Amino acid sequence: MDLSAYPLELPKGDCPMVRFMNVTKSYGSLVVLDNLNLDIQRGEMVSVIGPSGSGKTTVLRMLMTLETINGGVIYIDGKPLTHMARGGRLVPADEAHLRRMRASIGMCFQHFNLFPHMTALQNCMEGPVQVLGLSKAEARARAEELLAMVGMIEKKDQHPSRLSGGQQQRVAIARALAMRPRIMLFDEVTSALDPEVIGEVTEVIRKLVAEHDLTMLMVTHQMGFARDISDRICFFYKGKIEEQAAPEQFFTNPQKERTQQFLRAVKDAD
Amino acid sequence: MTFDWKWDFALEILPRLLRATLNTLMAAGAGYAIAMVLGLVFALALRSPWHLPRAVLREVLEFIRSTPLVVQIFFIFYVGPQVGITLSPWVAGMTAIGLHYSAYLAEVYRAGIEAVPRGQWEACRALNMTTRDSYVRIVLPQALPHAIPGMGNYLVGIFKDTPMLSVIGVTELMQAANSIGSETYRFLEPYTLVGVIFLALSLPTAGLVRLGERRLRRKLGL
After folding, report:
1. Tens-digit pLDDT profile for residues A42-67
2. Taking CB atoms and an 8 Å cutoff, what residues of chain A touch B222?
């Protein structure tokens, strides 16, 4: 792959928080993402929607470095994430580089992935103590503050098996925030939840949008929620961005045939 | 030929057999300790990203599992000195048993580690944890309860295999019974007692292992 066309760093000033530049991801002959170009601005909340298999979750997983990419470069705050500069050119990132870059990204998963052998509080202290090197006392103070923010302080000494899905997901959000990320990724965080507890998780995300200066990327099936809180909607179809627009524009006046079909299908399902 | 069991003879040799039982327990315990540590090292090495060492190790472990323990004991004890490694019967025996069972425990650990959902690894990565921390803090504690039943089976297995150490003269239970037999020409009582002692120690072990597994699961909140 010829990387000489890609800058070692994006120009300072108004560079986006996240830039996907010609990013391609494939498994064997199956192309999941085809030459993706996407910028996300500082503090922006972008919702990614689309039919299953459209590559939307892969976008998040690549950003979290859970997946490697087959082409292109991803930049975080102007610096390459998937690559690093060596001898004046870009080479694939090594683990040390990935660890440095990952520090600014946090992620919440569809199935929460809390550590089952730790209490809610321990889940939120693990990263700060082991990775950031905070003292137990500092980590505890930060974790308790965040658990209070997500309304889980009363359950802080419970193990995940004793918590409902909605409660687990709120702990998972607190756990991710405890690492002080600048970018938060939400991968279908309400998809595994019972309908009656979805609200408690979306409330927390609303609060984040309102009160924190985070850049957020969210994959979701909840159109109403996406419309409410997003700055922009990206509609993925077959590994490409078919259409993107501000929520009002996107939902009231979709331009593309595929988008209209998708929105009709979703509306019928409701 | 009559089947005449002599209680007074049995009681007379019992203390000697029980003393030898202590050696058997020590051999089993030491061998198991070696196997547990070595097995974990092998299990982790089998998951390392380096293809060639991994493939070599896989073949070596397959070889160890596919050849009889008693051959390995003989080999280490008698062939060792020819290449300059002279070990006492105890050390040679522990090495052989520990190595042999580590090959089995490596598989048990591997299965336990693979039973931990992939999402746990992804959560570790999202928290920017090192691979080492991910194993030590997150994955291994969850793998352990999965591994305990298999580990318990091999604990009983290793215990039952200790009589093989008698072939190189380790004074364990079987060796003691052999000596008694050759001194007195009575075999019924010593070998029967050996069987009874093994049974009495093996049976509760399985129960204890199950109890240990339940306790551990509860302690880990699983």
Report:
1. 999 999 999 988 889 999 999 999 99
2. 116-117, 161
CA torsion A168-A172-A178-A180 (nearest 10°) is -150
Query: Do β-strands A30-40 and A215-219 pair in parallel, antiparallel, or remain unpaired?
Result: unpaired
- Is residue A245 within 8 Å of A213, Cβ to Cβ? no
User: Which of A60, A107, A115 to mutate to test binding with chain B, by most B CBs within 10 Å of its CB?
Assistant: A115
Check residues B206 and B55 and name the one with the higher pLDDT: B55
Residues A219-252 have pLDDT tens digits of: 999 999 999 999 999 999 999 999 999 999 999 9
Q: Do B130 and A159 touch (CB under 8 A)?
A: no
What ipTM score was computed for the predicted complex, to two decimals? 0.94
Which of B121, B125, B128 would you mutate first to test chain A, the one with the most A CBs within 10 A? Answer: B128
User: Which of A109, A126, A161 comes nearest B137 by C-beta?
Assistant: A126
Quote the domain boundaries for residue B175: 7-220
H or E segment and range at residue A136: helix A136-149
Stated pTM of the model? 0.90
**Residue B2 belongs to a domain:** no
Residue holding tokens 């001194």?
B183
Angle at B54 between CA B51 and CA B59, to 5 degrees: 125
The CATH number of residue B199's host domain is 1.10.3720.10
Question: What's the confidence (pLDDT) of residue B112?
Answer: 96
The amino acid sitting at B190 is: P
Looking at the structure of chain B, the number of domains it has is 1
Q: Each residue of B186-200: pLDDT tens digit?
A: 888 999 999 999 999
Counting one residue from A and one from B, how many pairs have CB atoms under 8 Å apart?
66
Asked whether residue B49 is assigned to any structural domain, the reply reads yes
Of all residues in chain A, the percent with pLDDT exceeding 90 is: 88
Question: What does pLDDT average to over chain B?
Answer: 92
Contacts of B129 (CB under 8 A, 6+ apart): A126, A127, A130, A131, B137, B138
> Would you state the pLDDT for residue A270?
66
Residue B192 domain-assigned? yes
Residues 6+ apart with CB under 8 A from B67: none
B1 belongs to a structural domain: no
